[in-house]
Here is the input.
Amino acid sequence: MPVTSEKELEKLIDLTESERRWKEDGKNTLPLLISDHMASMLSIPAIRKQFVPDALENTDTDGTMDPLLEEKHENESRLIHRYHNRVAFLVTDRCFSYCRHCFRRRFTGTLTGPATGEEIEKAAVYVENHREVKEILLTGGDMFTLSDERLDHLLSTFKAHAPSGILRFCTRAVAVCPERFTDSLFSIIRKNQTGAPFYLMTQFNHPAELTEDAVRAVNGFLDLGIPAMNQTVLLRGVNDDADTLIELCNRLLYNRIKPYYLFQGDLVRGTQHLRVPVEKGLEIEKKMRTELSGLGMPQYTIDLPDGGGKVILTENHLIGKEGREYIFTTPEGDTRRYPDPLN
Ligand code: SF4
Here is the structure.
């Protein structure tokens, strides 16, 4: 059974004083829920940190509930149209485990439940009427908490209205609840594989999460020809060192999952103690870049507060221009000159 209370948690690990007091002042709205799969791994500090609530979540002085201003861009119920060419549809508020770093705390675990048939229909019609939308992110919460029947309805509705829209399955479930990925679930996905392709967007934050079962779940998608891309969140005390992330990226790549983004923590209330200074993030990125191939290297990215959008963070190698020559620094710190073409 998943862990939903401190009492159950205390049977598995000795809670610290701060972990025991996590909801003392009633400020913490993200529920405690840890799947069986993750509960069996709580002895690993990087897993514990991501899933065991802590009173530090109530002391955040910078975060806001909606730093990406998603509510402002909610053009239909649960449908966020922030970027011109893509939308995000909040399929459900439920997850198999609630990550303490969740960037959508305003919505996740609020007991609003799965989208209704009417909400799904309206979202699909919206995409049908907005030809500029090329991609639909099915997110939440976690779409795979839906029953097989609801999932089938969700996919078939979007396919009926927007067959040329690429559907991205944004999920943490392959990592936290791999047993969800049954033959019957994959047969529903296969049945709906018409028109534009599906993409699997995973969130693995630490190499320990790439268990045999998790890899098997991802393989189910890959075997259907669905590419897998990973989005890691940079988290203090979890993966804020280059060696851990290099190992993660190498293992992702080996398992046919492309490391896609390394996200600087969003400015979400309750996550300050998990955020990493940007300068440290840049140092980590620099070391990763020297040891990983282009294929294995994710883009270190920050989603700017107040809905500022995504910006890539990396060391600037172009340091100036003299005459028609650009001056670059090499990763080793030497300089090189690159001339503009003459005509
Ligand atoms: S699985 Fe995603 S939506 Fe759910 S709690 Fe974790 S980060 Fe938030």
